[in-house]
Amino acid sequence: MAQEVYLMRVTRLKNVRIVDGIHASSKPTDLYLVGPSLARQLPPETRIDATYDLEDHIAMAGGIDIHTHIGGGKVNLARLMWPERSTKEADEKPWLGPLSAPVPGTWETGQRYLQMGYTTCFEPAMLPANARQSH
Fold it and tell me: Which of 56, 86, 94, 95 lies at a 20 to 30 A Cα distance from 129?
């Protein structure tokens, strides 16, 4: 790995508390982003391209939802049945929340999952005819 480190951008996350569900310790430590990978330790001669002090921050894995209804046939049908729904109505009824529609589009739903900390969502029992909405 030592030689590979020199070829990639290395970012140091300093004083981060890691919650991984396995280890009990959450003492501040350093974590390194080496290209697309994470590393706990690097060779001492490694050049660090950027450092971020994450004191009072927590690093944890993203959430995974194994059963969503983001792009299935019935959800898409619901979107088609009420195309005239506007954002103005949602603004007049704040308890509805700032949705663009009663059934927001796949892009907006994906953005909301990201805001909640999810990184992976699956659409179960997807028919091939609807698969373009689930990928």
Answer: 86
